[in-house]
């Protein structure tokens, strides 16, 4: 394909965990002109340098500090904008999408990559929903991409690792017997590379998942592949414990709304939604109006939990947990 017939995509937040993997997958797909938006002064960060070496082109800009007009200049000629910025940059996303609309971008993808959930269950999803309404009112084409829960957060870390992510991986909830839709981050980018060029997904929500298993099934795989009894390290919070955590986190947020107290609500609210209610499934997502990415791309084989566990414990452990 000549570069003229390739879609031009700009990834925002490519220095972050998810954004880096999205930009990498777009470059691997070999069918996009891939640009990344990079804050002035961040050009020398390892991930940006890596992406540049692989063929990404850099535009300098900052969605928090730049005006709509400044961002607009960076968006001339861009077909698709994919945002993978963190929760604290949601206001900047509004500026970005306003600029995208002005510059004639065909499709924007906000930084969702989470649950498909009805209003009132998860604060963070409600905040993202407001951004969705903003995008719809702007009248720019969009695709909202959800991926269930990240498999990276579920496999228990090996017992000789420490740090906050390791600790988090030793918590879960419910009985372990309800199905949950999971996607490892490494596959989020591969799904995105399929979705953003597809006319069927324009102005739609798409639900991606690599595997749909119960926690019992996930921990069986983790024990077998790691060769350790990691399951016994996991605390399974009960329905009542999670309800109490949600209430406490809600009070803390109402007393002092901030990124920290918003994030404090994410884990108990998400655990309750998926592990107690059992609603983080592709069936529920379709009921709520999402397209099923697995049905759209039957030839694309995402990693199974078994395959991902092998990477996580055996083949690429350094990438996943050596520095936490
Ligand atoms: C944004 O602007 C503020 C105020 O000028 C400055 O302190 C901050 O460093 C800027 N942020 C970035 C990422 O450039
Ligand atoms: C998608 O939404 C945009 C903005 O509202 C609109 O211009 C476009 O026609 C829509 N396309 C489809 C296929 O729905
Ligand atoms: C944990 O143990 C494994 C297997 O013995 C070893 O390869 C790895 O380096 C250890 N990791 C840490 C963080 O000590």
UniProtKB/TrEMBL annotation:
<protein>
    <recommendedName>
        <fullName>NmrA-like domain-containing protein</fullName>
    </recommendedName>
</protein>
<dbReference type="Pfam" id="PF05368">
    <property type="entry name" value="NmrA"/>
</dbReference>
<keyword id="KW-0521">NADP</keyword>
<feature type="transmembrane region" description="Helical">
    <location>
        <begin position="7"/>
        <end position="27"/>
    </location>
</feature>
<keyword id="KW-1133">Transmembrane helix</keyword>
<dbReference type="InterPro" id="IPR036291">
    <property type="entry name" value="NAD(P)-bd_dom_sf"/>
</dbReference>
<dbReference type="GO" id="GO:0016491">
    <property type="term" value="F:oxidoreductase activity"/>
</dbReference>
<dbReference type="InterPro" id="IPR008030">
    <property type="entry name" value="NmrA-like"/>
</dbReference>
<dbReference type="InterPro" id="IPR051609">
    <property type="entry name" value="NmrA/Isoflavone_reductase-like"/>
</dbReference>
<feature type="domain" description="NmrA-like">
    <location>
        <begin position="6"/>
        <end position="308"/>
    </location>
</feature>
<keyword id="KW-0812">Transmembrane</keyword>
<keyword id="KW-0560">Oxidoreductase</keyword>
<keyword id="KW-0472">Membrane</keyword>
């Amino acid at each position: 394909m000549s570069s003229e017939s390739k879609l031009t995509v700009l990834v925002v937040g490519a220095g972050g965990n998810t954004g880096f993997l999205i930009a990498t997958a777009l470059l691997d797909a070999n069918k996009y002109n891939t640009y990344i938006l990079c804050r002035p002064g961040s050009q020398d960060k390892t991930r940006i340098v890596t992406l540049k070496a692989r063929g990404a082109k850099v535009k300098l800009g900052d969605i928090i500090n730049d005006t709509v007009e400044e961002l607009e200049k960076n968006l001339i000629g861009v077909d698709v904008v994919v945002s993978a910025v963190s929760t604290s940059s949601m206001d900047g996303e509004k500026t970005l999408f306003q600029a995208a609309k002005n510059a004639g971008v065909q499709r924007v993808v906000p930084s969702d990559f989470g649950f498909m959930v009805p209003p009132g269950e998860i604060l963070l999803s409600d905040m993202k929903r407001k951004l969705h309404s903003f995008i719809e009112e702007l009248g720019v084409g969009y695709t909202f991409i959800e991926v269930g829960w990240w498999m990276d957060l579920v496999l228990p870390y090996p017992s000789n690792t420490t740090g906050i992510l390791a600790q988090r991986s030793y918590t879960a909830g419910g009985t372990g017997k309800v199905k949950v839709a999971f996607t490892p981050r490494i596959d989020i980018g591969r799904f995105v590379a399929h979705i953003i060029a597809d006319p069927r997904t324009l102005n739609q929500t798409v639900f991606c998942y690599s595997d749909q298993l119960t926690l019992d099934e996930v921990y069986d795989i983790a024990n077998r592949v790691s060769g350790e009894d990691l399951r016994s390290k996991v605390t399974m919070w009960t329905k009542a414990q999670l309800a109490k955590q949600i209430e406490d986190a809600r009070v803390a947020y109402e007393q002092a709304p901030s990124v920290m107290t918003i994030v404090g609500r994410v884990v108990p609210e998400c655990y309750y939604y998926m592990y107690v209610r059992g609603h983080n499934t592709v069936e529920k997502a379709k009921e709520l109006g999402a397209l099923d990415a697995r049905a759209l791309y039957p030839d694309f084989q995402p990693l199974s939990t078994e395959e991902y566990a092998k990477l996580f414990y055996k083949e690429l452990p350094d990438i996943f947990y050596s520095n936490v």
